[in-house]
């Protein structure tokens, strides 16, 4: 069967109609809201970086760093939801910001000789 989609002429920029772009679903009563006050506060500091994704051989990790320190590097646990991982990252960022306790699940501690 032949496609009914019109092909754009070469060199013509493609435009997407607002009707074809799905909008975010309206919040429902079953939606879970993310309340991460420590990550919010961290994002207001100078040069924050938060990354979620693969790190080397680790399939999923969450890392929070500023220009001077890595505050937290967490490995996603088996069965852990993304929200649970972000909540752990939020708690780890609080420890780093208030008590200078840095959490690192990715890099092994230096060996003592």
What secondary-structure arrangement, pairings included, does this model have?
Elements: H1 37-43, E1 49-55, E2 58-65, E3 70-75, H2 82-99, E4 103-104
Parallel strand pairs: 3-4
Antiparallel strand pairs: 1-2, 2-3
Helix pairs in contact: 1-2
Gyration radius over CA? 21 Å
Mean pLDDT: 81
Biggest sheet, spatial arrangement of strands: 1-2-3-4
Portion of residues within helices: 10-25%
The total beta strand count reads: 4
Strand content: 15-25%
Computed structural class? alpha+beta
Which sheet architecture does the biggest sheet show? Answer: 4 strands, mixed
Specify the overall morphology. globular
Low-confidence stretches: 5-9, 12-29
Count every helix, treating DSSP H or I runs of 4 or more residues as helices.
2
Cα(first) to Cα(last) distance is 71 Å
Order of helices and strands: HEEEHE
Report what the structure shows.
The protein is an alpha+beta fold. The protein has a domain at 48-104. The protein has helices spanning 37-43, 82-99, and strands at residues 49-55, 58-65, 70-75, 103-104. A hairpin with a 2-residue loop joins strand 1 and strand 2. Mean pLDDT is 81; it is low at 5-9 and 12-29.
Q: Gist?
A:
The protein is an alpha+beta fold. The protein is 22% helix and 20% strand. A 4-stranded mixed β-sheet has the order 1-2-3-4, with helices on one face.
Tags for this model:
113 residues; alpha+beta; four-stranded mixed sheet; 2 helices; 22% helix
